[in-house]
Write a structure and sequence with these properties.
Elements lengths: L17 E2 L2 H12 L2 H6 L14 H13 L9 H4 L2 H4 L5 H10 L3 H4 L1 H16 L6 E7 L2 E2 L9 E2 L5 E3 L2 E5 L5 E5 L10 H14 L2 H4 L15 E5 L6 H9 L3 E5 L4 H10 L7 E4 L5 E9 L14 E8 L14 E8 L5 H9 L3 H14 L7 H25 L9 H9 L3 E6 L2 E6 L6 H13 L2
Parallel strand pairs: 2-8, 8-9
Antiparallel strand pairs: 1-14, 2-6, 3-5, 4-5, 6-7, 9-13, 10-11, 11-12, 12-13, 14-15
């Protein structure tokens, strides 16, 4: 019986003919196939008299590969740089540093149009259903451990750092828009919510966005858009902005005297509560839903606004800020959608998906803002969301089964860092994945799908 976990070997430097990140090469090949780098480059004007040695669009894509692979700083690009057989000419960490400080302000904003072009191409290949497009807005706190970073500030939870906000597409998990904010930025900032919403709509394919942009004729809209937020979005300004853009809303309600009074009335009016159901249509134990629109004055809200309340058994640690009760936990939301309150409750609870989307970003560089400059860190946030979207596109287009929803850690361990051997034959460079690697078939299938993309 063997009691050792490794085989005794002699270790030397100077190895050649080895590929350490075959899966990241697949991800980069996919990015090239959909034209991501070329599209970004078209909107990046050189800052000097001469063209830079490393195309800035390519630098962003290669840095996205680093973030997808678990990198957390500019210096991590060196792990790709030593693999020039796979990744070609890779910039140094100083070039990456300089790139993040060049792409600031309007130069960074211009890249959004490039991403929209590529996103439309990907959505065409995905054949997205004709159901309403659901957008989720949420913010997250990111702690930093130095006071040298510009605009880092204390937050309401006692931490110190930044308070970025995001808007995701629920169907795909893409981060359509994001904004880096100081740590003391308020959660219910109307301007930030509206800015994110407009930027997210601009990222959607034109056939979907038409009729939903600010100033558009709403009657021309071919697809419905629904935005969901937590109580931070429960402001008159945000409701009005949604109404102006012909965007429906599902927004968690804040506690107020009128809502508390309506919930009290539901206890004396028979037949208001209906059993709540899960996303699979099964009954939720002891949970119920009722509509209290008729018990409230909602004339200050956009026309057609409804208020729906859910109650569920009180569990240990549950927040009871909406309504005082020793038996149930109450939650409420406003919406202007038609339909059964129970079904709308299921749709609203799906807003919880946003936590998984944010966690995916935190696993891919969101927790590390490496620069002193706030503008450069804003570009870092762009790279983080770019990397996350690229991985999501790769999963949805090139992978099957459970791999389409795999978390970043699983993708890195199983796919992105798959090892291989480099072989030259008939003037071709061939990568042979390590014999017996568990996901070799998944990678080979992904490469075949990339070749079929047009």
């Amino acid at each position: 019986m063997h009691s050792t976990s490794t085989t005794r070997v002699s270790v030397e430097s100077g190895g050649t003919g080895v590929a350490a990140h075959v899966g990241l090469h697949a991800l980069g090949s996919f990015a090239d196939r959909i034209g991501l780098g070329a599209s970004l480059s078209r909107r990046i004007e050189p800052t000097g008299e001469r063209q830079p040695l490393h195309d800035r669009g390519k630098v962003l894509v290669q840095m996205a590969l680093v973030l997808a692979g678990g990198g957390e700083s500019c210096s991590d690009i060196e792990h790709l740089r030593v693999q020039d057989d796979l990744f070609g000419s890779v910039p140094s960490d100083t070039t990456v540093f300089r790139t993040f400080h060049e792409l600031i302000g309007t130069r960074r904003t211009a890249l959004a149009a490039s991403l929209a072009e590529v996103r439309a191409k990907v959505w065409d290949s995905l054949d997205v259903s004709d159901e309403p497009v659901v957008l989720d807005i949420d913010a997250s706190l990111v702690d930093v451990h130095t006071e040298s970073k510009e605009h880092a500030a204390p937050n309401f939870k006692g931490g110190y750092g930044f308070h970025p906000m995001f808007c995701f597409a629920d169907a795909t998990g893409e981060a359509l828009s994001s904004v880096l904010r100081p740590g003391n930025a308020t959660a219910n900032a109307v301007v930030d919510h509206v800015t994110l919403l407009d930027a997210a709509i601009a990222q959607l394919p034109a056939v979907i966005a038409h009729g939903h942009c600010h100033g558009d004729d709403g009657t021309l809209a071919a697809r419905s858009i629904v935005v969901r937020t937590d109580s931070a979005g429960c402001t008159a300004g945000f409701f009005a902005a949604c109404h102006e853009r012909n965007v429906s809303f599902l927004v968690t309600a804040r506690t107020n005297a009128q809502l508390v009074s309506a919930i009290y009335e539901t206890s004396v009016v028979h037949g208001l509560w209906h059993p709540a159901v899960t996303t699979d249509g099964e009954l939720r134990d002891h949970a119920a839903v009722c509509e209290v629109t008729e018990l409230m004055d909602l004339t200050s809200f956009p026309e057609g606004t409804r208020c729906i309340v859910r109650r569920e058994p009180l569990h240990q640690g549950a927040q009871r800020s909406l309504f005082p009760s020793l038996e149930f936990r109450y939650l409420a939301f406003y919406t202007d959608l038609d339909g059964d309150p129970v079904a709308l409750d299921v749709q609203m609870r799906a807003h919880a998906h946003v936590e998984s989307h944010i966690q995916r970003l935190k696993d891919s560089g969101l927790c590390r803002f490496p620069f002193t400059s706030f503008e450069a860190n804003s570009t870092w946030l762009l790279a983080v969301t770019l990397a996350a979207d690229l991985v999501r596109w790769f999963q949805l287009v090139c992978l099957e089964g459970a791999w389409r929803e795999a978390r970043p850690k699983a993708l890195r361990w199983e796919l992105f860092h798959a090892p291989g051997r480099l072989i030259r034959s008939a003037r071709r460079l061939i990568v042979r994945i390590l014999d017996g690697w568990p996901t070799a078939g998944v990678l080979l299938s992904a490469y075949r799908r990339i070749e079929l993309l047009t």
